[in-house]
Structures are given as structure tokens and as C-alpha cells.
Amino acid sequence: MPGVREVPVELTVNGTTRSAVVPARTLLVHFLRDHLGLTGTHVGCDTTQCGACTVALDGVAVKSCTVLAAQADGCAVTTIEGLAAADGTLHPVQQAFRDEHALQCGYCTPGMVMAVRQLIEDQPSPTEDQVRHALDGNICRCTGYQNIVAAALRAAHGTADGTTPGENGTAPGENGGRA
Ligand code: FES
Ligand code: FES
Questions:
Q1: Which has fewest Cβ within 10 Å: 9, 18, 157, 166?
Q2: pLDDT, tens digit, for every residue of 28-82?
Q3: How many angstroms does the Cα of residue 9 sit away from the middle of ligand 2?
């Protein structure tokens, strides 16, 4: 591309080495979506506010609209497409979102799932307040957050309200007794 500085980048994305030569200004989110076709990572703002673009970079959740592809050179990236097992079994956080009906349009969902995955890695037994704090960088325009918080608690504790399974009369996999 004339007049545009290009750089080679090589990343391991969802376990596969991917390389390309891209304009130096290319954001990681655009590299994932436009160069690799991994469109599960969404762009909601491009200004580091909404969290729809959250991925794991060397195991740590980042907003991929805030990282240049060149900065991620040599790193391992996990996107929403890389969370489920090879046989299609959902990641526990994905399953919890499904169980709790924690999405409507789904636009924020990949970023929410990646953020919750990070939360539970950092705090395996989070309180509801810790869940809400951890998700304050992820915006959902649809759900009112209640079911997203319930999903995060279910992913961590096995129940939608963060109690021990059976403690509130529900079993894991049930909907916390809510409608
Ligand atoms: S697109 Fe990255 S935070 Fe909104
Ligand atoms: S489910 Fe629509 S933005 Fe969150």
C-alpha cells in the first residue's frame, strides 16, 4: 500500500499460528475480524468503552480496539471462537450465559463472556458486587445486566445467585428458581 507503512505480524490465534503483513496502524480487533475472518469479536465503539472487542492476549483480557496488531506480535490470542472445545462443548462461561438467557441481541456477548472468563480466573469465587465491578467496562444495551450477572455467578458457583448448589433449593443447571 503506497505511503502506508506496513509491518509483519505473527500471532498464535486460538492455537493456530497466523501471520500477515498489515498497515502499522491496524488494530488487533481489525486484524482478527478483517484479516482472519474471526468476526465473533465485535466493535461497538472503537474507543475503549464498550468491551465488545474483548479477547485474551497471552491469557489476559484486553480490549482489542486498544491494541495494535503489531503490539501483539509474537503473542497468543484467544477469541470467542476459541473458547468451546473441539467437540463443540461450550466453555463453562458460555454454557452459563446460555443457561441464564444472558443475552438478547448478542452484540455484547462475546466481550462479556471473555470478561467473565477473566474474572473467574482472577477471582474463582466472586461476589455479586465483584462481578458487577469486573463488568463495568462492558456495555450491554439490551439486557439490564441482571442475567449477565447471574450467568457470571452461575459460571463461578453453579447457581445464579452465588449460593452453594442446593443451598437455595436449586440444583446446578436450574435457573435459580427465577422465571
Ligand atoms: S470496540 Fe473496543 S471497547 Fe468498544
Ligand atoms: S445483548 Fe444486546 S447489547 Fe448486550
A1: 166
A2: 999 999 999 999 999 999 899 999 999 999 999 999 999 999 999 999 999 999 9
A3: 32
In tens, the pLDDT along 18-37 reads: 999 999 999 999 999 999 99
- Strands 76-78 vs 6-13: parallel, antiparallel or unpaired: parallel
By most ligand atoms within 8 Å of CB, the mutation choice from 109, 113, 148 for ligand 2 is 109
Cα 102 to ligand 2 centre (Å): 9
Q: Which ligand is nearest to the CA of 65?
A: 1
Q: Which of 33, 34, 35, 53 is nearest to 43 (CA)?
A: 53
92-157 CATH = 1.10.150.120
| 9, β-bridge pairs | 20
Question: How is residue 118 written as a grid cell?
Answer: 477473566
Domains in the chain: boundaries: 6-82, 92-157
Ligand 1, atom 3: closest residue by C-alpha: 48
Question: What is the fold, at CATH topology level, of the domain defined by 6-82?
Answer: Ubiquitin-like (UB roll) (3.10.20)
